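just leaving the lab so this will be short. what follows is a protein written twice so to speak, once as letters and once as structure tokens for the fold. can you read through it and tell me how you think this chain folds. thanks a lot i owe you, the record is right below.

___
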Amino acid sequence: MPEAMSSRERMLCAIEGKAADYVPLSFMIFSACEQRCAGPLDFFLRQKELGLDAVVELWHMNADEVKDCGDAPGPPVAFGPEVQVREWREVLAGERYPLLHKEYETPHGTLSCTVQQTDDWPFGDHVPFLDDYVEARATKPLITSADDLPALRFLLAPPKLHELSRTRQLWATGIRFAQQQELLSAAGWGVGADALAWLCGLQDSVMMAMDQPELLDAILDVVSDWNRWRMELMLDAKPDMLVRRAWYEGTDFWSPALYRRFLLPRLKAEAAMAHQAGAKFGYILTSGTMPLLEMVIEAGVDVLIGVDPIQGKGTDMAEMKRRAKGKLALWGGINGFITVERGTPEGIREAVKLALDALGPDGFILSPVDNIRDTSEEVWAKTLELIEYWRRTR
């Protein structure tokens, strides 16, 4: 049994594929706890007090700067005064939902999108720039042709240096806090094909891969250029780990052949960039992972975040562990919504045991996938039951 470790040492040990003093429990997302806290530092500290191996995620520190791009946290996305934005609402006779229209007029052309204002639309009459809510409700996506790319490059241009001073200060505060508390620090989120959901729509993107591969490559090049300067800023903060979100990069959407053609080369470049800066590279992919596992390993990913045995399509934890052992650390093992929020204490205990047996003890971090969102006392009690059972059996 290894000697007692700090939380940071334990997490790094697991990410490096080794057996720590015990299997860490670190929630990949924990909205229910965050909403109980006064701010990001309080959130990190509260998790530590619960006994979790909390991660000081720098994107929480400046979340107020990216409200219009809430699903692409990290550096601020700010348009210059040259960009004119128009939004309006249209009610059509006989249609269930009103339409929300948005235009971005740039020096290099005008981009527009239209979404349905469904009953669960949380933004009023506003359409955010980069957000998951847009993809499922868009009747006209922002990007449809190569003619749109000059304007898109303008919208995804780096901020001016003076616009980054507050971000850098907040991230530096987060890094100092992580060092003082001996916690792992992480920057993110990097973005690849998930941006296609916001900009083009997933169905149109997959069809583009088949019918207009050169156009899809061109769009991904714009996204990659944007993500590269974002990564440079994130890595300048010297986090322990850089995280890329890839919820929409699994075989629920992309065949292995399309993944190898369009996504793998760019993923390799990002992992190499993180490693060159001395950071680990985490990859959030929760479904449709099994057919891509060897390519994820080939890319140089250190830890696969989001191993979901229930809602993760095709996930076989024992087989995933067999194929990943010594090559790729795994993070997850329990479904957050069905097993924890909707489940029973008995089911939670059973799921924890199953995950520890299948995926531990080496190269494994336990977590609900993706999130515990429900703020009710009932779900909080079940969350504490999960933590307590892990503590007894870890």
The chain has 15 helices and eleven strands. The two ends are 12 Å apart (CA to CA).
